[in-house]
Amino acid sequence: MNSVLSMACCVEGALPAYAHDGDAGMDIRASEGVFIHKGEYKIVHTGLHIECPEGHVAYVMPRSGLAVKNGITVLNAPGVVDSGYRGEIVVPLINLGRETFEVSPGDRIAQLIISPYTKVKPYNVTSLSDSERGSDGLGSTGVK
Known about the structure:
Layout: E1 8-10, E2 26-29, E3 34-36, E4 41-51, E5 56-61, H1 64-70, E6 72-74, E7 79-81, E8 88-95, E9 101-103, E10 108-116
Antiparallel strand pairs: 1-4, 2-10, 3-9, 4-8, 5-7, 5-10, 6-8
């Protein structure tokens, strides 16, 4: 695999890893076992600390298989890991499913996506420029 960036990691287990060529997200794994009852959320430890490259952000995202098969998703998706953060990445999982869900150490519980970002300088104005959409918001384009 040709990588453009390197990311320093300190872990109590496996490094984050891409499952397939072409994947945007690296799987991250639980470092502990927990039970998450239906309707409950729990912070799940990963043992992973990263040093995200300057000018980039790491997003902690849900895994689609966990969501579809078990109703398990990341509570604050996407979770933002700034390049200056050096603490452990923990994942708040919520169980929207019908049964208690067991997380075992080593289970893939989320994915980490590294992305560049652009910094902007906000400034006050009295109005915004016109656009075709204007202020049309939620549901403005319909379903079909």
